[in-house]
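> Could you send the Mitochondrial brown fat uncoupling protein prediction when you get a chance?

Sure thing. Input:
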Amino acid sequence: MADLKFSFAETFLCSAFAACFAEFFTIPLDTAKVRLQLQKKAVGDDVTLPKYRGLLGTMATIAKEEGLSALWKGIIAGLHRQCIYGGLRIGLYEPVKTLLVGSDYVGDIPLYQKIIAALLTGALAIAVANPTDLVKVRLQAEGKFPVGVARRYYGTLDAYYTIVRQEGFRALWTGLGPNIARNAIVNAAELASYDQVKQTIMKIPGFSDNVLTHLLAGLGAAKKPVLNLYLELSTTGYAEPVCHLVQTSKLLWIGTVKSRMMGDSGYKNTLDCFIKTLKNEGILAFYKGFLPNFSRLGSWNAVMFLTLEQARKAFRGELYYD
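Output:
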């Protein structure tokens, strides 16, 4: 990822821009995921059908009841999140990776060092950005309000203020535990995989540091079919661990617990949320929103990494269109 040498500030700005760009275009999928994750099974009522059903059904219901723009609820908080989280996790990745192997290291950095670096930067970045994630989920969770019922929040800034006023400053870090676990794993899956897949692709005759390589590596950071191609091409011996690591991003239950803790302040802690969800709704409840999450993961990575590489080239006046 670091063919050109960039300062932390330069990488942070390019990463924040690319993450925000990807966030804007994929947040409807994320909104559908959050609504599905927060939808609880009716207790003692087997007749009532769930309001949201499937990816397309959920998006259609939201658009019909609340308007098409409702699919972009929480976008301002989402952009806040990506400026902080996206900028820090990618901006710190290269410095941390260099710190782990030493500044005098020569050659390809081992995959396990890349994984460790991405785990650390993902955990640190989301620890700082957790308040933005909380507000984003709260705003995405708000559906159509009955007539006469006041809204909980009247915008992003009001949400920050209201949460602090009603629940205390510490409430902004609600769900921090599962959020760190989820984003550390996802960051390792995305950054380490992208780094390794791009490195491998560029060793293949005919491939260079261009848009096609960035697109394939971006898809490879999230999608197993591309990683299967990578398995066939790789001679490093590290391809299988990468594939296994990316598969851990399917641990959607962590995201479900995180979303429920952020969307519902009635849980005491992570374990309480996990036990109540398991007891009331069964194990499958943890995998609600799988399809929108899977769809967003691939599209978000492709858009973000492609935009990031082009933004870095443009930053140095070396933008190309091959």
